[in-house]
Specification:
This protein has 45 residues and is mainly α. The protein has three helices and no strands. It starts with a helix and ends with a helix.
Length: 45
């Protein structure tokens, strides 16, 4: 797996664990909300 694939997988898991709550998912990954949303857009999630 590439780094991008791993990161997209972790983002999906964080969203699932937090019932789709982006703020909590970003917090659990140690990302700011803006960085989290940039990654969502980057990976087409």
């Amino acid at each position: 797996m590439s780094l991008e694939e791993v990161e997209a997988f972790l983002i999906k898991k964080a969203l699932a664990r937090n019932d789709g709550n982006a703020r909590k998912a970003a917090e659990s990954l140690g990302l700011s909300r803006s960085a989290f949303y940039r990654r969502l857009q980057q990976y087409g999630l």
